[in-house]
Amino acid sequence: YSGSAVYFVESLNTFQRDIKNCRPSIFVSTPRLWSKFQLSVLAKISQAKLDFLLALPWLNNIIAKQIRKQLGFDHVRIWASGSAPLAPAVIHWFHCLGINISEGWGMSENCGYATANLPFRADKIGCIGKPYNGVKIRLSEQGEIQVKAPNTMLEYYLQPQQTVDVFTEDGYLKTGDEGEIDNEGFVRINGRLKDFFKTSKNKYVAPAPIEAQLMQHTIIEQVCVMGNNLPQPVCLVILSDPAQTVALTKYRYSIINRLNTILTNINSRLESHQKLDRMLIMPSPWIVENGLLTPTLKVKRHILEQRFDRLVHAEYSEKVVFIDCSFNPQIKH
């Protein structure tokens, strides 16, 4: 219909090579891959050196253009991210390179057609944009985002009760996302209502905003905040490959010190019931093959909670704890 070509990547490890071969004009990806692209750039040039070069008026455009070319993005006119929240700091980082990532949002139930920050606006980074033409969005009394449009599904196949439960009486789809809408109509998601958990102090915590703050740091590649029935939340962390490499050497203390600093800084910005009690550094990444990521690379929070329940509820003396590889993530505790 559109005359576009379709390319298939060989694997996650060859993704960037395959993009260079494709040289797309429109590129939509997931937060996990955007983080990998960022790390691949920083593996070749330090952040300090990059900041220095981009600060030079006569050189910044040349450097940014060269990086876009190396990533295979020299022909791209629209960049976008979806499936899960992308840390605003990551979007700002790419924006400095002339890569303007528009976050969008949608569900299978509405054919993925709902909102986008398109045309891209840097002052709206962190929002999922405004509704597309024909899409109506409102908030319930509980702050749930509700949507109505001609592209919304009619029903769940052979699930009449589930269909009734997901629609309001006036035909709006209950998305399950809690959010807010600003005076320009831009929508911000604070997290999935079902992901909110209650601590043992009877306080509700939304994990997504805390995870977004943690993901601003390139030392962290994956994170999941949990704390159901705990006095304070904890976070499970997968380090980036470079950080993991250093952590396996005698210089592990440098990684621990940096993580402690991150933990302290983030806790200083959180309310008392949201403050993270500790970081648990996991020994192996969460991937589709071990059942901890969806095919669209979203973390399966409920599976993590089941598999690592004993680990999360154990007592520790340190704020940053490296979990031994002998703990088998395939075993359900």
Short description:
With 333 residues, the protein is α/β, with parallel strands linked by helices.
What does this 3D model show about the protein?
- The protein is α/β, with parallel strands linked by helices and 333 residues long.
- The protein is 29% helix and 19% strand.
- The strands form 4 sheets. Strands 1-2-3-4-5 form a 5-stranded mixed beta sheet. It has a 4-stranded antiparallel beta sheet with strand order 6-7-8-9. It has a 4-stranded mixed beta sheet with strand order 12-13-14-15, with helices on both faces.
- Strand 8 (173-181) and strand 9 (187-192) form a beta hairpin.
- The chain is globular and about 60 Å long.
- The chain starts with 14 loop residues before the first helix and ends in an 11-residue tail after the last strand.
**Major sheet: arrangement of strands:** 1-2-3-4-5
> Element order, helices and strands?
HEHHHEHEEEEEHEEEEHEEHHEHHE
Distance between the termini: 50 Å
Number of E strands: 15
What's the total helix number? 11
Sheet-strand content, in percent, reads 15-25%
- Residue runs with pLDDT of under 50 for 5 or more positions: 326-333
Percent in helix: 25-40%
The biggest sheet amounts to: 5 strands, mixed
Mean pLDDT: 91
**SSE-based structural type:** alpha/beta
Any idea what the shape is? globular
Radius of gyration: 21 Å
